[in-house]
Design brief:
With 416 residues, the chain is of the alpha+beta class. The strands form three sheets. Strands 1, 2, 3, 4, 5, 6, 9 and 10 form an eight-stranded antiparallel β-sheet that branches. It has a two-stranded antiparallel sheet with strand order 7-8.
């Protein structure tokens, strides 16, 4: 992510999107991100400046990342910019016999035999991750996500923002889950990316914690209770301190004091940037409503128990929008007066309140309407595969998802 200037709350938003590079015909992973970046940058630099958008590598050589070149105020405008960059990448990949594939996980990749790590700049970082945690599992080799970066200007703003994000995190898989398959199997869990993410650093549990971050609301307490604990626990395994940086923290939202922002990391990549940015807009609106204390004060938000939020989050990981954990007490923090709703219904209530809309057509953005009406992308993929996917049907569904990415279109299960 490009360095963000110090901004006050909601003065700008940074977005990062990750996609898989795959064989255009078979859709199997194709580890050629370095070739792609070399074509446009003339080398193997970490970032290639494309104007409003930067391209960069990730740990796995088959993953390419696009990110906003600094903070933006217009997510719809950024969606258009990302869409243009997707088309540029597709044009460059075509002569290689490659294309891009969206969603949070490759549906049939077997990391143990298919992973290739980035071999160029910062290779020592990826080698350290591999040595300590073993990267030939889905938790490192097969995760594609959207990151949302929200700025804060001082300790007070950090505390308010961190409290709000903690409360919204358990809802996010019920809006953005897009990873129902692992190695060709419909597992029954709808956000397998987050299921793998939660255990990928199990050798050093403090790196990920409970995914939902601890109730700490100042920089001093965060550095002492979260970051220093991670660095201490990594010490014997990483004596040179290669990984002793803020970015090693793998919670679902991490404080980046180096750029004065909190990075939300729990959203799976969707079928096209238009969908990603529409969902990001709703997530940010929900966070903002809490920060502004529209229905609950910051102290009440800060008191919510971390372990309870982690249980809520896991329910959403498993069942996505159908998860029914939101209780009256939790919903009241958002001003929702219901005894109990499922997660999709909760998001529908938030969209009705927080996003401008035409009363005759529902939510402003058509991509968001698809999620609220038809379910998360994971639910739509599972429905299209009918819980017992044949390899030929998997290929057809994921070819359609690749086409959705190229076209900027939503995916509908009823097409199968």
């Amino acid at each position: 992510m490009a360095n963000l200037p110090i901004l006050a709350l909601f003065e700008g938003i940074g977005i990062e999107l990750e996609y898989m590079i795959v064989d255009a015909e078979t859709l199997s992973v194709k580890p050629c991100a370095d070739r792609l970046l070399h074509l446009v940058g003339g080398g193997y630099d970490e970032e290639v400046d494309r104007g409003a958008v930067l391209w960069s590598n990730e740990l796995a050589l088959h993953v390419i990342e696009m990110k906003s070149n600094g903070p933006t105020r217009s997510l719809p405008g950024l969606a258009l910019a990302f869409g243009e960059q997707v088309r540029d990448i597709l044009d460059l990949l075509a002569p290689m016999g490659a294309t891009l594939l969206p969603t949070g996980m490759h549906p049939w990749m077997v990391p143990e035999r298919e992973l290739r790590l980035w071999p160029h700049d910062n290779a020592e970082i990826y080698a350290a991750f591999d040595r300590i945690f073993g990267c030939r599992g889905h938790g490192f080799a097969n995760l594609q996500s959207m990151h949302i970066n929200l700025p804060f200007a001082n300790d007070d703003e950090f505390g308010r923002l961190h409290a709000a994000i903690r409360l919204v995190l358990p809802l996010i898989p019920g809006l953005t889950a897009s990873s129902p398959l692992v190695e060709g199997r419909v597992t029954g869990t709808l956000d397998n990316r987050l299921e793998a993410y939660r255990t990928n650093c199990a050798r050093v549990p403090s790196v990920t914690g409970l995914v939902v971050p601890e109730a700490v609301y100042t920089r001093e307490s965060y550095e002492a209770e979260v970051l220093q604990a991670i660095y201490r626990d990594l010490g014997e395994l990483d004596p040179e301190g290669v990984l002793a940086h803020e970015w090693v923290n793998a919670r679902g939202a991490i404080a980046r004091f180096d750029r004065m922002a909190i990075e939300i990391r729990t959203a799976d990549t969707q079928e096209c940037p238009r969908a990603d940015l529409a969902l990001a807009e709703l997530v940010v609106a929900a966070v903002r409503s809490l920060v502004e204390q529209r229905h609950s004060d910051t102290l009440a938000q800060q008191r919510v128990d971390t372990e309870r939020l982690a249980r809520f989050h896991q329910s959403s990981v498993e069942r996505a929008g159908a998860a029914t954990w939101p209780t009256r007490e939790y919903l009241s923090l958002f001003g929702i007066e219901h005894e109990r709703l499922n997660v999709r219904e909760t998001w529908a209530c938030l969209a009705d309140e927080l996003l401008p809309r035409d009363p005759s057509t529902g939510p402003r953005d058509a991509a968001l309407a698809v999620v609220l009406e038809e379910g998360t992308l994971a639910e739509r993929i599972a429905a299209a595969l009918n819980r017992a996917p044949e390899p030929s049907l998997q290929r057809a569904v994921y070819h359609r998802l690749a086409a959705c990415l190229a076209e900027g279109a939503s995916f509908h299960a009823h097409e199968y």
